[in-house]
Amino acid sequence: MALWTATEIARATGGRLQGDWSVTGVSIDTRTIAPGDLFVALKDVRDGHDFVAIALEKGAGAAMVSRVPEGVGPDAPLIIVDDVLAGLGALGVAGRARTAARVIAITGSVGKTSTKDMARLALAGQGRVHAAEASYNNHWGVPLTLARMPADTEFAVLELGMNHPGEIAPLARMARPHAALITTIAAVHLEAFGRMEGIAAEKAAIFTGLEPEGAAIVPTGLDVTPVLEQGAAGHRLLRFGRQAQDDVRLITATPESDTTLVEAELNGRPLAFRIGSAGEHFALNALGVIAAVHAIGADPVTAAEALSQWSPPAGRGAREKIGAVEIIDDAFNASPTSLAAGLALLSRLEPAPGGRRVLILGDMLELGPDEQALHAGMARHPAMQGVALVHTAGPLMRHLYDALPPAQRGIWAETAADLVAQAGNLVRRGDIVLIKGSKGSRISTVVDALRKLGDGLGSERRE
After folding, report:
1. Cα–Cα distances in Å, from 197 out to 107, 190, 231, 241, 281?
2. PANTHER family annotated for this entry (predicted)?
3. Which of 118, 173, 265, 344 is deepest in the core (most CB within 10 A)?
4. What secondary structure, in 3-state letters, does 360-389 show?
């Protein structure tokens, strides 16, 4: 079934058609392109025009280009636009305009992708759901998600991200959500914003895209909650958190093995459910999802029941057993706030007999001028007392390492690659290990190295 006809794409983008065709999907990557896709020749590290011929050879239904690339014949199926990124944006706007879907848009300093995945699962049993892939949340990811949305979609879940001021509002106006959810505000991107209030104000710009009668969903209990609520002025406001007045209120979050039993209230009515991972921060994100589901008119009880099937993806808090060691893989996101949440989770988990709680940490990036103090300050977090050993990689993590008591200091390495070289010496049998760092720290390569050790990981006791 066609997702777009050539005529529809030409009308949406104002481009010039070459040939008459239709497409069944939209792609920006020839490595994953499927037959029938529209290949969008974006410029990034490489110019996508260099790959148009390959895309067509792989069965692409057509390509969006700003010029006819070399090696592409005069009869090739093309839509020729002035600017490919602008063309993708226009197609995304058209994709949003032609659907009657109820849209949830999610942003926040941490937890966007896992919360988006929760929302997708929560709505899956209630209608046709379309959601962003991976972390497609920027100036090309949001329009790509909208361009891929089938016209008969009933619920859509979008993720909106930013690195610099002014990036959220245009995405929000493109998404036009019926519910806009902010997960939390943390010390991420301080390098660009300077203060937490600046981050909060930028995140609150998501509310500028709300549809009439749309709902702004805000976490409570933060120093910057008033900034978020101010940004939501003029819109229906729903609050979630631990406060007595919250619309969706967390009563308790009890970890039980690989799940968390959540007891909550929705508008004063009891609501109990499980999520498929341990961690109070995940429970709070689930409450935000329930608020959003409720706001768009879907059934929050059905949504809550569905969340028992959710578990975090790799790199974002997923737990796995490798050999004689348990790993919590949270290697794609780090800030003082999210590290504190990870420490809180680790403190509630019991290692196997003879095992320890171990941290493997990479640099937390984009924290601004206080980055060294913010790293060192994590050594004083109360939950750090229950950690037996801390391995670190990166120049910023050196400040945390130096602030630790000598008995807690494991290995410090200049880079994650240097830590990878010592992977077999990082853990021992029975350990439970939290691995965390900003994606740019490449601490995820340590996770990969531990996986490669496989069943032999932790088989020898190392002090």
Report:
1. 16, 10, 11, 19, 21
2. UDP-N-ACETYLMURAMOYL-TRIPEPTIDE--D-ALANYL-D-ALANINE LIGASE
3. 118
4. EEECCCCCHHHHHHHHHHHHHCHHHHHCCE
Look at residue 461 and tell me whether its pLDDT is greater than 50.
no
- Rounded distance between C-alpha atoms, residue 372 and residue 377, angstroms: 9
Is 316 a residue whose pLDDT tops 90? no
C-beta separation of 131 from 150 below 8 A = no
Instruction: Say which residues have a Cβ less than 8 Å from residue 135's Cβ, sequence separation at least 6.
Output: 112, 113, 141, 159, 161
The tokens for 78 are 């093309």
Domain 318-456 grouped into CATH 3.40.50.300: no
Asked: is 4-87 a CATH 3.40.1390.10 domain? The reply is yes
CATH architecture type of domain 99-309: 3-Layer(aba) Sandwich (3.40)
Does the annotation list 112 as a binding residue?
yes
Residue 109 labelled as part of a binding site: yes
pLDDT at 463 over 70: no
Q: Burial-class residue 213 by CB neighbours within 10 Å (0-12, 13-18, 19+).
A: exposed
Q: Are 206 and 185 in contact (CB under 8 A)?
A: no
Structure confidence at residue 106 as a pLDDT band (50, 70, 90):
very high
User: Does 113 carry a binding-site annotation?
Assistant: yes
Domain range summary for the chain, segments of one domain joined by + = 4-87, 99-309, 318-456
- CA–CA dist 376, 381 (Å, integer): 10
Residue with tokens 């095992």: 355
7 is in an annotated binding site: no
- CA distances, 207 to each of 140, 268, 313, 452 (Å): 20, 26, 27, 44
C-alpha–C-alpha distance, residues 174 and 105, integer Å: 11
Which H or E element spans position 281? Answer: helix 280-295
pLDDT at 13: 98
Instruction: Name the residue type at position 360.
Output: I
Chain centroid to CA 256: how far?
25
Contacts of 367 (CB under 8 A, 6+ apart): 187, 188, 190, 191, 335, 336, 374, 375, 396
The answer to the question of whether 311 is labelled as a binding residue is no
